[in-house]
Design a protein that fits this description.
This is Rgg/GadR/MutR family transcriptional activator. The protein has 282 residues and is mainly α. The chain has 15 helices and no strands. 34% of the residues are buried.
Length: 282
């Protein structure tokens, strides 16, 4: 997928009549940009370099996406709309439709995995209730090779975590954390992915794994835009540890007074109900 983005970048660069030297100067080497553009690298291009290259070409990230990836993105929008409306039947129908297309070789596994992930989130069903063991192994194999953590890789990880074994979710989260630490900053995509991973691990009863991710998130300055998401996770951990919902009650009360967070409050209450059921703490 990252290679397809490189090929698209090359096409746009040439249309703008810019040389490799003009585009790469001060950002990356000519050789590295050339390899990426020609699909000759398996490790993609790091997020921070792609962002600089996009800025130099004065284009949006969306302009780089392949037709296949744009299809996956369009599926994500459909899935999120169904999820927001609590449309379980709609999600099941879309999941079955996409899995049928995948099994017939018409699409790759990612779109069906995204739909299945959100269907599982709403229903609490097991992974093997929607995908075969072979399909789950195929998805896991794909995710094990997410090493560079480009934007597309981070988005993929964020939207299929319920279909992965908890140990793999934690391992990939640690690799994402290490990569972001080496870069010296956390992208919004990485933060969202790690917040999702922490909650998935909580739902999988891997609280110690979740606690470690949350501890790292608590230390970040970049988290300010996601303070309520992080506060919710901290309060959920407190609830599991102490069987005390007072902190969550205070959070819900605060969100109640903020009109723009009405949907967020609804999402948190639903997530809280899931946790109570999973941990038998009704």
């Amino acid at each position: 997928m990252s290679n397809q983005i490189g090929l698209r970048f090359k096409e746009i660069r040439k249309k703008k009549h810019l040389s490799l030297k003009q585009v790469s100067e001060g950002i990356t080497s000519i050789a590295r940009l050339s390899r990426w553009e020609n699909g000759l690298t398996n490790d993609g291009m790091p997020i921070e370099i792609v962002e600089k290259l996009i800025k130099r070409l004065n284009i949006s990230y969306d302009e780089l996406l392949s037709k296949q990836y744009k299809y996956s993105i369009s599926i994500m929008y459909q899935v999120r709309k169904l999820y927001k409306n609590n449309d379980i039947d709609g999600l099941k129908s879309l999941t079955d439709q996409l899995l049928s297309q995948y099994r017939n070789g018409k699409i790759e596994i990612l779109p069906s995995a995204v739909a299945a992930n959100f269907y599982l989130d709403l229903t609490g069903k097991s992974r093997d209730s929607v995908m075969t063991k072979t399909e789950l192994l195929e998805l896991s194999k794909y995710c094990r090779y997410l090493k560079v953590w480009t934007i597309d890789e981070t988005i993929i990880f964020s939207n299929v975590q319920l279909l992965l074994e908890p140990d793999l979710v934690y391992m990939l989260s640690r690799e994402l954390i290490s990569t972001m630490h080496e870069k010296g900053f956390y992208t919004n995509y990485a933060i969202i992915s790690l917040l999702n991973a922490a909650f998935v691990l909580i739902k999988s009863k891997k609280v110690e794994y979740a606690r470690k991710i949350i501890c790292i998130l608590n230390s970040l300055d970049d988290i300010v835009d996601y303070k309520y998401n992080l506060e919710f996770l901290n309060d959920i951990i407190f609830f599991i540890d102490h069987h005390d919902s007072s902190r969550l009650d205070s959070l819900f009360l605060e969100l109640e007074s903020l009109t723009k967070y009405k949907q967020l409050k609804s999402d948190y209450k639903f997530a809280f109900s899931q946790v109570k059921q999973i941990y038998n703490l009704e």
